[in-house]
Amino acid sequence: MRKLKEILRLKYGVGLSHRQIGRSLAISPSVVSRYANRAAQLGIKQWPLPTGWDDTKLKHAFLQTQVKMKKHSLPDWATVHRELRNKCVTLQLLWEEYCERNPGGFYSYNHYCRMYREWLKTTSPSMRQVHKAGEKLFVDYCGPTVGVTDPETGEIRTAQVIVAVLGASSYTWAEATWSQQLEDWVMSHVRCFQWLGGVPELVVPDNLKSATSRACKYDPDVNPTYQQMLEHYNVAVLPARPRKPKDKAKAEVGVQVVERWIMARIRHEIFYSLASLNQRIRELLERLNNKIMQKLGYSRAELFIQLDKPALQLKKWAPTLPILA
């Protein structure tokens, strides 16, 4: 009872803050707040205490009656993470909106940020980076190849699978080509842009030879032909640096998803042309992009429509390129 009465004295008699009282009595400011709130509920707002408030009554009112703490509403971190991908949205703004929605109980801004960082640690590495809508398209090739059988000779020729992933929505595109050579590399980009219906601000390719003429840790040289194509579409290029996995985390995850979701599913299927293989890839891509992502509660297609699609730069396209044969 002595410490309880001292809390009330320091608050109402001396006028100290809850933090100052906590330091003075070596207790948590939250404990001070709990008893101060209980005192306000009981009508105690002065020192000395009102008549009739002896130790027995104080003990019953404060120590034998459970003090109900206000429950703070927990933010929907998946929605917070998605909102941050809009170019003008900040964590400060989202916290202010959260406070407005929960006037009865909300976390401080510092605690809100700390909780968001803790939530991020539970997600995959590619999700921890916040990519702005329409900003980046990550491009890379899958490691495994797919066999295409010549219907006349029975000879099997291997096809490469290229994957592109938009940073904000993780919306995924893929197609098979005969090689990773410059012509296939460049034309795959053109078909990807047409499929998306617009172009991003930046393309982030891996450090393969078709994209860069000289690999460098700090400033890789971009292949001139590749550079000209991107300039035509008013797109900048930012090659991933060697030994910098964060630069291409989104692409690596996208490649892994395509390998597991598409290539694994077609491993026993026989294709007699590149066109039939790409038709099958497009069918599975639609399923992949419409699949709900567990951590976020949205599909890639939904996020693409909400985030990336409105932010992509629109272009006047040439006639649609034919499906690869």
Features:
325 residues; alpha+beta; Arc Repressor Mutant, subunit A; Nucleotidyltransferase, domain 5; 3 domains; six-stranded mixed beta sheet; two-stranded antiparallel ribbon
Short description:
With 325 residues, this protein is of the alpha+beta class. It has 13 helices and ten strands. Strands 1, 2, 3, 4, 5 and 8 form a six-stranded mixed β-sheet that branches.
Strand content: 5-15%
- Count the strands? 10
pLDDT < 50 runs, ≥5 residues: none
So how many helices?
A: 13
* Secondary-structure element order, N to C: HHHHHHHHEEEEHEEEHEHHEEH
What distance separates the N and C termini?
86 Å
**What is the rounded Rg?**
30 Å
Number of self-contained structural domains: 3
Q: What sort of overall outline do the alpha carbons produce when their principal axes are compared?
A: elongated
User: If classified by CATH, what would the architecture of the largest domain be?
Assistant: 2-Layer Sandwich
Helix content: 40-55%
Largest beta-sheet characterization:
6 strands, mixed
Q: If you average the pLDDT, what whole number results?
A: 83
CATH class of the largest domain: Alpha Beta
Q: SS-based structural class?
A: alpha+beta
CATH-defined fold name of the largest domain: Nucleotidyltransferase, domain 5
CATH level 4 superfamily of the largest domain: Ribonuclease H-like superfamily/Ribonuclease H
3D architecture notes:
The protein has three domains: 2-63, Arc Repressor Mutant, subunit A; 77-122, no CATH class; 136-311, Ribonuclease H-like superfamily/Ribonuclease H (Nucleotidyltransferase, domain 5), CATH 3.30.420.10. A hairpin with a 6-residue loop joins β6 and β7. It is elongated, with a radius of gyration of 30 Å. It is an alpha+beta fold and 325 residues long. The model has no long low-confidence stretch (mean pLDDT 83). The protein has 13 helices and ten strands. 45% of the residues lie in helices and 13% in strands. Strands 1, 2, 3, 4, 5 and 8 form a six-stranded mixed beta sheet that branches. It has a two-stranded antiparallel sheet with strand order 6-7. A two-stranded antiparallel ribbon has the order 9-10. One of its GO terms (molecular function) is nucleic acid binding.
